[in-house]
Design brief:
90 residues; mainly alpha; two-stranded antiparallel sheet; 4 helices; 7% strand; elongated
Length: 90
């Protein structure tokens, strides 16, 4: 049993989007499709509520730490071909 009587604050979709730095529509679409890995939310009375602590844990679990090998892959990636007529160089 916990001696901490503090109730964790839940935030709405707009506030959760601000925490993550994405649009509200992104979170709405994520809940509908589950395509972004599913930011954890709680449904109460048809409303989606988020725990700021769970949002941050979710984001930290998906953080990418760049490695030298990844940097080489990015540099070596082929550039997309330009469409249309080639430009005159002379």
């Amino acid at each position: 049993m916990s001696t901490n009587n503090e109730i964790p604050r839940l935030v709405n979709t707009k506030e959760a989007a601000q925490i993550l730095g994405v649009s509200k529509a992104t979170l709405d679409r994520d809940r509908a499709t589950g395509c972004a890995g599913g930011v954890p939310c709680i449904r109460i009375g048809g409303r989606a509520l988020y725990s700021p602590e769970q949002i941050l844990e979710w984001a930290k679990a998906r953080a990418i730490v760049p490695t030298p090998a990844l940097a080489l892959q990015i540099e070596a990636a082929p550039q997309p071909r330009r469409r249309g007529r080639p430009r005159k160089t002379g």
